[in-house]
Write a structure and sequence with these properties.
four-stranded antiparallel β-sheet, Rossmann fold, alpha/beta, 12 strands, binds magnesium ion, eight-stranded mixed β-sheet, binds adenosine-5'-triphosphate
Length: about 350
């Protein structure tokens, strides 16, 4: 059984003018110890998907459909939850998630800046998190914090520092230490390295990967930079405008991308092998999700788009085992038989 199973998840935000269709029917799964890269441009619903899994959506965000199962436990969409009124649901969700958050699933937030309480020492906050979930003495918790500092490459002398005394990069590492504190089965890392410079990014990612392998946990790395996940993930999910456009085995997808959006993303970031070439950028920008385009949501920006793409949303097509693409022309692209429409 997969560790995490997301089936047809739908998350909309209520806004004054209607609804933002931030996540609109995504499905993926993750086995124990596996890493998945969730990749897409800004505003495509990546963080919303992560907040749905951890049930930390803001109050105007609603899970309107689908099911999330983690380690046999239904975190969203259980019959029991669906039978409750909205007010009772909140309490129910809190009780389900109490035992799951931090111990089983932890999250590295996109803005590490706000993750720590400014009035408490960073080391104490991590120790508190440990003590809230494990029956250990203050001294033991402190010893564990020291271990974690070493693990993530933080200077142990800074343990008694306050969040404002840490640089952005240090806070990011402290956040990673916090996420590791309770040996979770799954870590969701939302843009874990964007606050860091490029050299540091590589180092922190490699270290996270090492720690993850040692501890045998699964990880979801969220990023807009497809090259970041190339060396750390087994699976990749390409998200655009609330939909997963391509999903599956990373080698297969990197070698034979079969969705125009993935091809665009791959051309937009420096090659992993470091070849120097002019970078391409996908024309236009992601749509307003309170009024998304008809048919395939990528069609207005797609250089292969035909009239069918405007009219009908494509189904997920399995172009080869463990490799799915939501594009009417997935197979043609896979077989290299698609020509651009100008
Ligand atoms: N609280 C909210 N209320 C209304 N709309 C929201 C809210 N939070 C996010 N959205 C909208 O939902 C969509 C998805 O946002 P989300 O933050 O999940 O994107 P993302 O892929 O994580 O982007 P980024 O790469 O910039 O972090 C966007 O259109 C965003 O404006
Ligand atoms: Mg985000």
């Amino acid at each position: 059984m997969a560790l995490l199973e997301i089936e047809d998840l739908v998350v909309y935000f209520d806004i004054i003018r209607g609804q933002v269709q931030a996540v609109d029917g995504i499905s993926f799964s993750l086995n124990r110890g596996e890493t998945l890269g969730l990749v897409g441009e800004s505003g495509c619903g990546k963080t919303t998907a992560a907040f749905a899994i951890t049930r930390l959506l803001p109050s105007n965000g609603n899970i309107l459909g689908g099911k999330i199962t983690f380690d046999g436990k239904v975190l969203a969409g259980s019959e029991e939850e669906l039978s409750l009124s909205k007010r009772k649901r909140r309490k129910y969700v809190d009780s389900v998630m109490r035992d799951v958050r931090w111990d089983e699933v932890s999250m590295i937030f996109q803005s590490a800046m706000n993750a720590f309480n400014p009035v408490y020492k960073v080391g104490d906050q991590i120790a508190e998190a440990i003590r809230a979930h494990e029956d250990v003495s203050k001294e033991e918790a402190k010893r564990k914090v020291i271990e974690l500092y070493r693990l993530v490459g933080l200077d142990v002398d800074r343990i008694d520092g306050y969040p404002h005394e840490y640089s952005g990069g240090m806070r990011q590492r402290a956040m990673i230490a916090m996420a590791l504190a309770c040996n979770p089965k799954l870590i969701i890392a939302d843009e874990p390295t964007t606050a860091l410079d490029v050299i540091m990014q590589d180092r922190v990612l490699a270290e996270m990967r090492d720690i993850q392998r040692k501890m045998g946990m699964a990880m979801i790395i969220i990023t807009h930079d497809i090259s970041v996940v190339a060396e750390v993930a087994e699976k990749i999910a390409i998200m655009y405008a609330g939909k997963l456009l391509e999903y599956g085995d990373i080698t297969s997808i990197f070698e034979r991308p079969s969705n125009p959006y993935t091809i665009g993303l791959m051309a937009s970031f420096p090659s992993i092998k470091g070849e120097r070439k002019a970078l391409f950028s996908i024309p236009g920008s992601p749509p307003d999700l309170s009024n998304p385009p008809s048919g395939c949501r990528f069609h207005p920006r797609c250089r292969y788009a035909k009239s069918l793409c405007k009219e009908k949303e494509p189904e997920a097509f399995e172009v080869e085992p463990d490799h799915f693409s939501k594009c009417h022309f997935a197979l043609d692209i896979f077989n290299g038989q698609m020509s651009e429409v100008s």
